[in-house]
Amino acid sequence: MSGKEKKQFIHIFLTGEKQIGKSTLLRKLRKELCQKYHLTETGFETRPYKINGSCRGHYLHGLVPGGTFHNDCPVTIRLGGGRMVFATETFETSGKEILQRSLKLSRQKPVLLVMDEIGKAERDALGFQRQVLECLDEAPYAAGVLRKGDHGFLKAIARRPDVAVYTVTRENRNTLLETILYP
């Protein structure tokens, strides 16, 4: 790349209230970005785990092949009464490796780095946080969900000049995809 060329980044994060449709919209956005830019997906998803139909927490699912990380490890555990425990070590081990492998892959071929979702569970996972920021520094394409909150790490991502954050609402969730793709 010459001194006059500037690497173009497309980093899109969705935010909004709980259960508003952020992850649903992100799935559509991921599909469109992959088709438009001929990308394959890498990164991670935070998926709910349920017992008898009730959400009891979330686990981290890596979208990158290979590695020594254990896939589908818990990241949050609901204890009842609104209390939740965060499994910081999952982010610091499996989460970091997923991101490191994803970044390595992005240096070899065009990929969409998926980060669904980033929130308060990562607040004490400093190594994972550094890895997320390194990925945003280097990976040309990223899309994810950024939980609402005023934690410093969430703010650091949202304030980056190479990141566009869109708020999903009931009023715009059916039209926001078009707004993002065709501004």
Please provide a written account of the structure.
This protein has 183 residues and is an alpha/beta fold. It has a single domain, classed as P-loop containing nucleotide triphosphate hydrolases (Rossmann fold, 3-Layer(aba) Sandwich). 33% of the residues lie in helices and 33% in strands. It has helices at residues 22-37, 88-106, 126-138, 152-158, 176-181; strands at 10-16, 40-51, 54-62, 73-80, 83-86, 111-118, 141-146, 163-168. It has an eight-stranded mixed sheet with strand order 5-4-3-2-6-7-1-8, with helices on both faces. Strand 6, helix 3 (126-138) and strand 7 form a beta-alpha-beta unit. The longest helix has 19 residues, at 88-106. The two termini are 27 Å apart. The model is unreliable at 1-5 (pLDDT under 50).
Helix and strand arrangement:
Elements: E1 10-16, H1 22-37, E2 40-51, E3 54-62, E4 73-80, E5 83-86, H2 88-106, E6 111-118, H3 126-138, E7 141-146, H4 152-158, E8 163-168, H5 176-181
Parallel strand pairs: 1-7, 1-8, 2-6, 6-7
Antiparallel strand pairs: 2-3, 3-4, 4-5
